[in-house]
């Protein structure tokens, strides 16, 4: 491709609202263009990257017997009602009506739809396992679309669904996809870890996430290399040791003016924050719930949502009025003496001794509050968010925390969808069984951003060869020099004949501009045709190392061939 003909409106300035490198560079390198918040178009260079990533995914899915289909993103309400997810999915789902007032959504995922594919069409265990996938645009009206294509409202996902006859074969399918995903992300040259994830609204019990490590990632993972434990922060089991040895003291009310935070009350009473009971007031599916955890910890909302069995969007902070209605007082909320309101506590609070808790009166706290004697509530094993300094639940050794971008997610769904949609087959005894399912996603467009987060410098993107929009870029230094122009043209043609993907910067621009663009768009292999063209010598460098060497054409071709063989 000749750059003189290419649609490539690169930007000099860093776009205002782009916070992370991948977002800035995708915009600056004219790979994507913003249409609306979280909605992007893919421009020629960017779309080539997308197609490379899709090709990798396709090859590895096909290699394990996946069959590609393409379903409509337009899905009818009925199937979502059958699975019970029409309401559960909540405001993240784009809903629309047709002219006959029938309800549809733009698919955020497609478990229901794929289950209907199987229903009545695959009727015997002999036809199983089945592995179907698609690479398709998904729609999610994200609460906080940000970081460009990393958290978009319209994005490309590869979603796969497996259907099996029993649990062992479902686990086998899961393991196969796991292996395929390792190959996929290795081929993209991503540095990633695989961690236990939260099955969330998807249902089912086992789930793993493939996390591309990146400091700007929204995901947090906790791991210990020795024990092999690795989980997302949402999932990570928190070990919180408690000293149970203290003798129970008598409860006493203390005047605590304006001490509405844990820090303030602890400071005022001269105690540590872990002697305080933290109270959080939520509305959960329309009802007030008070949650109590150790004062020095944060609540893990995902764990609470699981325990409550509600959808994510059904949980939000209660306002002062709702809190007051229960007899509690915002800022001075505690469990002692409260009646008629649902109270839930992390199990550890039942063992902690002589706690400080709000007295449900302005400017007052109880001290020496003890579970069992002074209050009771529903106890949940673990409601805490992992934090720095926590230990591994397997080995007791320190956990490490890291940030990353979730690029893939795999779930064992069990029979959640097949039973809801009554999708069954006949087993070897002629008995009806619901399919055992798995579902598996790869964020195609998000992967592109994740690669950039791991491969860039202050000048631009450094594409790995496997996903680069082109392999080679030829920079013609002086387009008015006939020798230079003729040599560059010759190399351009010869490389293309060899099947190399080449960009030819034949623009009538100053070399500085050409070099800047070249660094920005990140083509891995570079050929500069300049002063030594008369001797048949060109400069060769890689985007990664930037060091120029002089090569003859035959040396150049050998070098490029070698590079292309290696990735
Ligand atoms: P997240 O926790 O980041 O919201 P998710 O758990 O909702 O992700 P899945 O439903 O498992 O994501 O979707 C499968 C894959 O699709 C994810 O692993 C991710 O790579 C990609 N993906 C999900 N949401 C988005 C989005 N808003 N923009 C771009 N890619 C996304
Ligand atoms: Mg999500």
Please provide a brief summary of the model.
This protein is of the alpha+beta class. Strands 3, 7, 8, 9, 10, 11, 12, 21 and 24 form a 9-stranded mixed sheet that branches. The protein is globular, with a radius of gyration of 29 Å.
Descriptive account of the structure:
By secondary structure, the protein is α+β, with helices and mostly antiparallel strands. The protein has 14 helices and 31 strands. Strands 3, 7, 8, 9, 10, 11, 12, 21 and 24 form a nine-stranded mixed beta sheet that branches. The longest helix has 21 residues, at 167-187. The model has no long low-confidence stretch (mean pLDDT 96). The structure holds adenosine-5'-triphosphate and magnesium ion.
- Name the hetero compounds present: adenosine-5'-triphosphate, magnesium ion
Over the alpha carbons, how many angstroms does the gyration radius reach? 29 Å
Which term fits the overall shape?
globular
**What is the average of the pLDDT values?**
96
Question: What level of helicity do the residues show?
Answer: 25-40%
Termini separation comes to 22 Å
Binned strand content: 25-35%
Largest sheet: 9 strands, mixed
Helix-strand makeup class: alpha+beta
Per DSSP, the total helix count is 14
Helix and strand arrangement:
Layout: H1 21-28, E1 32-36, E2 39-42, H2 44-63, E3 67-68, E4 74-76, H3 77-83, H4 85-88, E5 94-97, E6 103-106, H5 111-118, E7 130-139, E8 154-164, H6 167-187, E9 192-196, E10 206-213, E11 219-224, E12 229-232, E13 252-255, H7 262-269, E14 277-284, E15 287-294, H8 301-308, E16 315-317, H9 320-325, E17 342-346, E18 355-358, E19 364-369, E20 378-380, E21 400-414, H10 416-420, E22 424-426, E23 432-434, E24 436-443, H11 444-454, E25 456-457, E26 460-461, E27 472-476, H12 482-497, E28 502-505, H13 511-521, E29 525-529, E30 537-542, E31 549-552, H14 553-566
Parallel strand pairs: 3-7, 15-17, 17-20, 27-28, 27-29
Antiparallel strand pairs: 1-2, 4-6, 5-6, 7-8, 8-24, 9-10, 10-21, 11-12, 11-21, 13-19, 14-15, 14-16, 18-19, 21-24, 22-23, 25-26, 29-30, 30-31
Helix pairs in contact: 1-11, 2-6, 2-11
The structure holds adenosine-5'-triphosphate and magnesium ion.
Adenosine-5'-triphosphate is lined by residues 109, 140, 142, 151-152, 155, 157, 406-409, 441, 443, 445-446.
């Amino acid at each position: 491709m000749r750059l003189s003909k290419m649609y490539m409106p690169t930007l000099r300035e860093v776009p205002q609202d782009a916070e992370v490198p991948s977002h800035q560079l995708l915009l600056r390198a004219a790979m994507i263009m913003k249409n609306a918040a979280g909605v992007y178009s893919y421009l020629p260079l960017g779309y080539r990257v997308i197609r490379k990533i899709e090709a990798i995914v396709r090859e590895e899915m096909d290699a394990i017997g996946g069959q590609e289909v393409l379903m409509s993103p337009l899905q009818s309400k009925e199937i979502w009602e059958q699975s019970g997810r029409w309401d559960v999915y909540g405001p993240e789902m784009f809903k629309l009506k047709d002219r006959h007032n029938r309800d549809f959504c733009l698919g955020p995922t497609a478990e229901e739809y794929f289950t209907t594919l199987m229903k009545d069409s695959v009727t015997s265990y002999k036809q199983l396992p089945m592995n179907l996938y698609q690479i398709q645009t998904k729609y999610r009206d994200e609460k906080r679309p940000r970081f460009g294509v990393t958290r978009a409202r319209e994005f490309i996902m590869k979603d796969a669904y497996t259907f099996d006859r029993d649990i062992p074969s479902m686990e086998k399918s899961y393991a196969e996809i796991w292996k395929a995903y390792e190959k996929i992300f290795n081929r993209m040259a991503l540095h990633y870890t695989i961690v236990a994830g939260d099955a969330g609204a998807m249902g089912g019990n086992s789930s793993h996430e493939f996390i591309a490590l990146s400091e700007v990632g929204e995901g947090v993972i906790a791991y210990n290399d020795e024990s092999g434990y690795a989980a997302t922060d949402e999932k990570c089991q928190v070990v919180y040791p408690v000293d149970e040895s203290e003798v129970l003291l008598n409860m006493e009310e203390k005047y605590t003016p304006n001490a509405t935070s844990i820090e303030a009350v602890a400071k005022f009473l001269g105690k540590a924050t872990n002697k305080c009971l933290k109270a959080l007031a939520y509305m959960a599916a329309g009802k007030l719930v008070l949650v109590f955890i150790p004062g020095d910890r944060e609540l893990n909302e995902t764990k609470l949502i699981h325990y409550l069995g509600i959808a994510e969007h059904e949980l939000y902070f209660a306002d002062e009025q709702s809190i007051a209605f229960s007899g509690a007082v915002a800022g001075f909320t505690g469990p002692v003496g409260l009646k008629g309101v649902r109270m839930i506590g992390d199990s550890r609070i039942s063992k902690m001794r002589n706690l400080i808790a709000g007295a449900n009166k302005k400017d007052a706290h109880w001290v020496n509050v003890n579970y069992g004697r002074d209050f009771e509530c529903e106890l949940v094993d673990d409601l805490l968010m992992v934090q720095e300094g926590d230990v591994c639940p397997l080995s007791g050794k320190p956990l490490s925390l890291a940030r990353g971008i979730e690029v893939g997610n795999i779930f064992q769904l069990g029979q959640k969808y097949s039973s809801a949609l009554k999708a069954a087959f006949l087993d070897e005894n002629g008995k009806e069984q619901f399919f055992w399912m798995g579902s598996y996603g790869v964020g195609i467009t998000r992967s592109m951003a994740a690669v950039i987060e791991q491969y860039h410098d202050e000048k631009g993107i450094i594409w790995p060869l496997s996903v680069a929009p082109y392999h080679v870029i030829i920079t013609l230094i002086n387009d008015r020099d006939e020798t230079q122009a003729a040599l560059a043209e010759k190399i351009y043609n010869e490389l293309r004949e060899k099947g190399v993907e080449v960009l030819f910067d034949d623009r009538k621009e100053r070399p500085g501009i050409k070099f800047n663009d070249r660094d920005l768009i990140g083509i891995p292999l570079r050929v500069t045709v300049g002063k030594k063209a008369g001797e048949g010598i060109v400069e060769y460098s890689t985007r990664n190392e930037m060091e120029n060497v002089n090569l003859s054409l035959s040396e150049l071709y050998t070098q490029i061939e070698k590079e292309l063989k290696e990735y």
